[in-house]
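Subject line: Sequence and fold of a protein, written as structure tokens
Area: Proteins and the way their chains fold up in space.
Start of record: The labelled sequence and token lines come straight after this line.
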Amino acid sequence: MKPVTLEHTHNTRSLGGYAAAGGRTTQDAFLRSDAPVGLTAKDVQTLRAWGVTDILDLRSEVERAQRPTKLEKAGFACHAWALAGGGRIPVCPAEVPPSYLEMTQGEEAMRQVFGCLARAKGTTLFHCTAGKDRTGVVAALLLLLVGVAREAVVRDYAASHACLAGVMRQVLAQHPELDPEVITPRAEHMNAFLDLFLAQEGSAAQYLTRIGVPADEIVLIKDKLVGR
């Protein structure tokens, strides 16, 4: 995990630095984040320094309207594909892993998401609202695709816990009806999702092929993450 320091986000970090298959190491081709709303000129410069050319928004149309990023005005290529679930919060912890699996079943949106990741000219920053659930699922698929160990995939997901600790306290103070065990990104949530996903799909590569991501786009994504 490589943190990316921005003034107006809490959970922005690179997928670079993980050991992958074949003795390779993941590169800084993809940044995961909470919603980059209200970025300063300094933040934009920071993203440029990381090589970011494209922004991929996984939120619903309603979420985007309520908190627009407006990053196209800064010259970024902006894309939006809402993943299944639309930001719906599960009612209990046991519903969290199946809600993640539901995201993978939005096959058209997921196919478009991975197409955007493949075709971006430079680094892509992808995000939802908090950068932990929808973003976490996409990040997990990317890391699995290049053979990052399951333990590291879970660790990358769980890192959002510390990154969002202050935000979570504020959210729970404002919404005491929410279950902290549901909205807190815990390792057991990702582990249970991976059990469901791998039992159903076999692997990330098999899943992407099944939903229609072209083979050349899968190769492009792998090349971006770990090189040829």
Notes: The radius of gyration is 16 Å. DSSP finds eleven helices and six strands in the chain.
